[in-house]
Amino acid sequence: MTNIKIKAVDIYHAEKSISNEFYINHFKEQGKDISHFLEIMGRKDRFVIDNERENSLTMGIEASNRVLKKAGLTGKDLDMLVFTSQVPEYIIPTNALLVHHAINGKENMVVYDMNANCAGMTIAVEQVSRYMMSNPHMKRALVVGSDNFSLLSSPEDTMTYSNFGDSSSAIILEKTEEDTGFIDSIVDVHSDTDNRTCVVYPEKGLSQTIKGNGQGKSMLWIPFDGRFVLPQVYKMFEKVLERNNLKIEDIDHFCLSQFALTLLQEIQDHYHIPEEKIIFSGDRYGYTGTSSPFMAFHEGIDSGKINRGDKVLFWTIGGGYQLATMLFKY
């Protein structure tokens, strides 16, 4: 039976690390106390671009080179490359094409960008896995997720300025006959699309911004309580487990959205999941958007918690909102 396994994963983050103290003092000058907010989100440090050299593309290229080196592969060994970002450095040409050039990818290779906001990389891994299973000519694929969130953050907005970090993750998927790899997934827009305007960039749309009819420097973020998605999250978890004859206890590790620590804690409490099974990396990297669950996945492997043969459940949320749950045997 043909399966799609995760051959390797690696990350890259911006050079500069900033602790909570900077943001607490920054907002104190505006008359705001964000200490409790940072505690709820689970933040301690985050990496933020503060130079002209780095952006979503350069971070994605660096993560790609790192994962190729880790896997003992070159760009010539890949059949497919997907770049996911909600803060792409370029609209034309695709960032994936520029990554392809940087890693010296081969000809006759599927290369494209994808944007599903913060759910982008998870959905890309899901779709690429399913496509590889159905296409006999696809042996290996590279999926890259990279967001330069600080580029869109307003120094007056607590959520975007103090919560986000700039990082990238890259993962290599490989076709195998081993009893491992992709198991199942659910990607849905249950999304209450009435909330589609809570997180917007550019606020007035690209056409109006270019025409000068709307400011396009910062992301519009209208505060919302992310816990409203939890009933649907539980339904997705139970559905994907039931149709694969598994129980929550059979999952070895959970690599979930790192958007807010409280969301992870509510999921943990709901299912009585042991703390060691929940991988949280948001205290080190901040909220990194599209790469978020894979920053946690890399953290789990790097720390020795996640090992080959472990069942890993991924989950994330994209603005608007759409939810993605994916099950892998690593």
Automatic annotation (TrEMBL):
It holds the Pfam family ACP_syn_III_C. It comes from the Bacteria. InterPro entries: ACP_syn_III_C, ACP_syn_III_N, Thiolase-like. Residues 241-330 form the Beta-ketoacyl-[acyl-carrier-protein] synthase III C-terminal domain. Its EC number is 2.3.1.180. The keyword Disulfide bond does not apply. One of its GO terms (molecular function) is beta-ketoacyl-acyl-carrier-protein synthase III activity. Signal peptide: none annotated. Keywords: Acyltransferase, Transferase. The keyword Acyltransferase applies. Residues 112-185 form the Beta-ketoacyl-[acyl-carrier-protein] synthase III N-terminal domain. This is 3-oxoacyl-[acyl-carrier-protein] synthase 3. It comes from Neobacillus rhizosphaerae. The gene is fabH.
